């Protein structure tokens, strides 16, 4: 728990510093095309979701968990992030969450989209929040902590079920 309280503010500060220094440095050098900072790449709502999700990195997985103090399961994690970051109340289970929002193809994924996997021999049994660059944030399993994962790993590629978009673009 101590690690979460130290790492999350440090990570948030690093993102802000990258964004600030990137734009400050860009203003000192003449450029014809300005590259967006890390946070500028995402919509305001997606930024809020990502930052809230990163605050919860390191929280223990707990089956049926809906409280960060005692542990979260995958759908409890997603539910808390959406509620606290942007005020959207999602259903409780991954299966129910898979029925909310617009169905999107994998090549259309954007930060803040929900990604679903078959991890319990049934479709839409696991959910995470897409970050971009084939990475997603989730609460994986008993004995693990909320973390970032690469969707290109064979385990996730074989189990990918689809995605839903809840944020307007």
Which descriptors apply to this entry?
endopeptidase fold (from Nostoc punctiforme), single chain, 169 residues, 6-stranded antiparallel sheet
What does this protein structure show overall?
The chain is of the alpha+beta class. The protein has a single domain, classed as endopeptidase domain like (from Nostoc punctiforme) (endopeptidase fold (from Nostoc punctiforme)). It has five helices and eight strands. Strands 3-8-4-5-6-7 form a six-stranded antiparallel sheet. A two-stranded antiparallel sheet has the order 1-2. The longest helix has 27 residues. About 9% of the residues have low confidence.
**Major sheet details:** 6 strands, antiparallel
Number of helices: 5
Rg from alpha-carbon coordinates: 17 Å
List SSEs in N-to-C order: HHEEHHEEEEEHE
The termini sit apart by 35 Å
The spatial strand order of the largest sheet comes to 3-8-4-5-6-7
Share of helix, binned: 25-40%
Concise account of the structure shown:
By secondary structure, the chain is an alpha+beta fold.
Annotate the secondary structure layout.
Blueprint: H1 2-28, H2 44-55, E1 66-67, E2 71-72, H3 74-86, H4 94-97, E3 102-104, E4 114-117, E5 126-132, E6 135-138, E7 147-150, H5 154-159, E8 160-165
Antiparallel strand pairs: 1-2, 3-8, 4-5, 4-8, 5-6, 6-7
Helix pairs in contact: 2-3
